[in-house]
Structures are given as structure tokens and as C-alpha cells.
Specification:
single chain; about 425 residues; alpha/beta; two-stranded parallel ribbon; 14 strands; globular; binds D-xylose; binds nickel (II) ion
Length: about 425
């Protein structure tokens, strides 16, 4: 069955194309800095926003028109696999991502859920073999079902901790079955509503216990995906434990998880935390923890996770600089954790939105590569920190100085300190010249 008979395979047609169903910047085979765009960008499509999101919001019913509903939840789930791979193939997306509950109905028992997952992952495995499309990451949804009202690993209820462990075990079995390259933990309800009734130390110790069980099980079954934690500061809980990259890194280091865990960073989560997206990538990169990204953007006027498709070229350019500085994002990728607006309810909006996202990241990649080719930012930084290249600065960098020697130096130097203007407005204006 073909679900999108009116949509052909999306082709690169160049900037002058008037065809809305064409890429104008994403040219998968174009080589930039020695790699194709497809290899640089490693685009993935998210099952939840593309296949299960219905357009409802707290004030309104579903709006999305979707052609895949069947007679039973399992039939719908099977149809979704067909439709999803049609979308992946037509967009030429090399990867996909999903939560367990996105792909298969939960049923009434854990056994039933597992058996539904087996049926659907058999189908997905066939589709993967047929198309060559790969699994970037999967994850367990440990936040939607009412049993997770007080969290999963951080729940006060040990039965919930055990249930979460079972879902993670199944998630890793699925990851092995489908050759998942990464496995994500987003702390859905791992946080708190009130400190009055919360034992923060116990909750965080338990989350780490669950992660260590995952590492041990991966070793046992001989499957080692890159484990990733996805920070977010708030939503659904008032205060999420994995607030941002820096907080999550402190957790990773405290519990000695750094050999197995990196970060999956999301645009809208960064801005909710009061950071830019590139800030979060920089923090991860300089700590050797940049694992993967969830591509989306928020709305500066709204204080919640709107998960909009990325259309801001300024942001994607700065993000792509970080990815290039990191020597790439593999085995991670760029996952469109993005959803169409409630008013974009037509089935073909799924294509138009992803085309917008792909093109915005492709523009970011081209701009970032041009900035690097001109050494625009690296020269500027080298000049700004030049005082550490020679003299006293070089000695400081070589750890040859101490408080006493520097006091002696400063007494001699006196007030003869000159700082230079940053001319930052000029820098920002010049940066605009690189936006593709
Ligand atoms: C929610 C998160 C979620 C994770 C996967 O805000 O972004 O979608 O990416 O659980
Ligand atoms: Ni996400
Ligand atoms: Ni999100």
C-alpha cells in the first residue's frame, strides 16, 4: 500500500527550484570538507512526532489527517511501519529513532506489550533490510503511563523501578535486534514537583543504578550502543534532574559513567535552560561528550517545549560549527525531534516540514564550512588570546608560574595593562555574511 501517492522521492533541485517538494540546499552527495552532506548530517526521523502525534493540545482535539488508521491498534501499528518507511525512503533519510510505545500498542500486560513489540520489530527489521535505512537510537518511554506518575528510576515505588528496568532490558534487546547505534535515556519524569517529600540523593543514586544495569546488560548480550542522556530543565516535572549539559556531565562523572555515556542535546531544551543550542554543544564537545543532537527550535515568546522544525539558519550555522569542530557527530546524528504545528495538519506537511529542516541544516553546514575555510572565528580567537602565546602568558600555560612569581611580575608591570576592544558588533555583522 502506498500512503503518499502524490509525493515522489524528494530530489535536490538547487536554490532556484520552485518545487516545494524538492531540496534546495540539502544535496546528499555534495562533498564538504572531504565528506558528503549525507555523511556529515546523518539525518534521522522521529517516529513519535511523525507517526503518532495527533495535533491535539491542552485546549483542543486532534487535527492531524493521517491515512494509516486500521481496525485495531495492532493493525494501525503495522500500517505505520509501512507509511514510516515510505516517508524515510522518499526523504532519503538514512536513520530513524523511536520510543517503544510509539511503535507498538502497550496492551493490557507487560507480556502483551513485549509480544506486540516483537511483531512490529520483525516488520521494521524487514523494512530496514529492504531499504538500508538504519536505527540511530531507540528508547523506552518511562513517562506517559500513569504508573510513572512519580518518575521511573527516581520513583519512590520500587515496583516502578523494576518495571522500568524490564522496559529498558527489552529496549536493549530491540537495539541489538535492529543494530541500533545509540540508545537514549531522556529523564521523562526523573525530577521532582516538591522538595518537601523528595529524597534527592536516593533518587539520583537509583537513576545511576538503572544506568549501570543497562551497561551491564549490554555487555552481557554483546551489544554496546553509545549510551546517551538527553538533558532538559523542566517539563514534565517542575525541575528535571538532567537540567542541562553541565548538570548532566556532573552526574555522569559523579557516578563514573563517562566511558559509556555521552549527551544527546536538543535545541528547544537548551533554550528552556536559558542557554543557546551552541552553548550546550560547546559544553559537551570540550568535555568529550558530544554524542548526538535532537534538531528542533523553540519560540522565544513561549516558555515551553514547542519542538518546532528548525528554520533558523543563524542557529544551525553555529550548531554545525560545533559539529565540525567535534570532527563530526557519528555514531550520533541529527534527529528531527520536531513536530508540525497543529494548523499544518495535511499528510504532506510531514514532507514539507522535514524538507525545511533538512535544508536549514544543510545551509548551516555550508555556512559553517565557509567560516572554517576563511578561519574567520579561529583567527579572531587566536588574536584574542594571543597574550598566552609569548612571555608571561606562555609561562602560565606551561604551568611555570605561581602566585608569588605572578605577584612579582605584576608589581613590576604596574598599571601598564592594556585591554583591546572586542569590536563584537562588527564580528556579528560579518558573521551575517556567511549565512547561506
Ligand atoms: C522530550 C524529549 C523526548 C526525547 C526522547 O522533550 O525531547 O522526545 O527526545 O524521549
Ligand atoms: Ni528529544
Ligand atoms: Ni523535547
Amino acid at each position: 500500500m502506498v500512503y503518499f501517492p502524490n509525493v515522489e522521492k524528494i530530489q535536490y533541485e538547487g536554490v532556484d527550484s520552485q518545487n516545494p517538494f524538492a531540496f534546495r540546499h540539502y544535496n546528499p552527495e555534495e562533498v564538504i570538507e572531504g565528506k558528503t552532506m549525507k555523511e556529515h548530517l546523518r539525518f534521522a526521523i522521529a517516529y513519535w512526532h511523525t507517526m503518532t502525534q495527533d495535533g491535539s493540545d491542552p485546549f483542543g482535539n486532534p487535527t492531524n489527517q493521517r491515512p494509516w488508521f486500521g481496525e485495531t491498534p495492532l493493525e494501525t501499528a503495522k500500517n505505520r511501519v509501512e507509511a514510516f518507511f515510505e516517508i524515510l525512503v522518499k526523504l532519503d533519510a538514512p536513520y530513524f529513532c523511536f520510543h517503544d510505545i510509539d511503535i507498538a500498542p502497550e496492551g493490557d500486560t507487560l507480556e502483551e506489550f513485549f509480544s506486540n513489540l516483537d511483531i512490529i520489530t520483525d516488520l521494521i527489521k524487514e523494512k530496514m533490510a529492504e531499504t538500508g535505512i538504519k536505527l540511530l537510537w531507540n528508547t523506552a518511554n518511562l513517562f506517559s503511563n500513569p504508573r510513572f506518575v512519580n518518575g521511573a528510576g527516581s520513583s519512590n515505588n520500587a515496583d516502578v523501578f523494576a518495571y522500568s528496568a524490564a522496559q529498558i532490558k527489552k529496549g536493549l534487546d530491540i537495539s541489538k535486534k535492529l543494530g541500533g547505534e545509540n540508545y537514549v535515556f531522556w529523564g521523562g519524569r526523573e525530577g521532582y514537583e516538591s522538595l518537601l517529600n523528595t529524597d534527592m540523593a536516593l533518587e539520583q543514586d537509583n537513576i545511576a543504578r538503572l544506568f549501570k544495569m543497562a551497561i551491564a546488560y549490554g555487555e552481557k548480550i554483546g551489544h554496546k550502543p553509545q549510551f546517551l542522556i538527553e538533558p532538559k530543565p523542566k517539563e514534565p516535572t517542575k525541575h528535571q534532574y538532567d537540567f542541562d549539559a553541565a548538570t548532566t556531565l556532573a552526574f555522569i562523572l559523579k557516578y563514573n559513567l563517562q566511558d559509556d555515556f555521552k549527551l544527546n542535546l536538543e535545541g528547544n531544551h537548551a533554550t528552556l535552560a536559558g542557554h543557546t543550542f551552541e552553548h550546550e554543544l560547546t559544553v559537551a564537545r570540550i568535555n568529550d561528550a558530544l554524542g548526538s543532537i535532537d534538531a528542533n527550535q523553540g519560540d522565544v515568546l513561549l516558555g515551553w517545549d514547542t519542538d518546532e522544525f528548525p528554520t533558523n539558519v543563524f542557529d544551525t550555522t553555529l550548531v554545525m560549527i560545533e559539529i565540525l569542530e567535534n570532527n563530526g557527530i557519528a555514531p550520533g546524528g541529527i534527529n528531527f525531534d520536531s513536530k508540525v504545528r497543529r494548523s499544518s495538519f495535511a499528510p504532506e506537511d510531514l514532507f514539507l516540514a522535514h524538507i525545511a529542516g533538512f535544508d536549514t541544516y544543510a545551509r548551516g553546514l555550508k555556512g559553517a564550512a565557509a567560516i572554517r575555510a576563511d578561519k574567520f572565528l579561529s583567527d579572531l580567537k587566536a588574536k584574542r588570546y594571543a597574550s598566552y602565546e609569548t612571555g608571561i602568558g606562555a609561562n602560565i600555560m606551561a604551568d611555570k608560574e605561581d602566585l608569588e612569581s605572578l605577584t612579582e611580575y605584576s608589581l613590576k608591570n604596574g598599571a601598564a595593562i592594556t585591554n583591546e576592544s572586542s569590536h563584537i558588533e562588527l564580528v556579528k555583522s560579518h558573521l551575517n555574511d556567511y549565512l547561506v
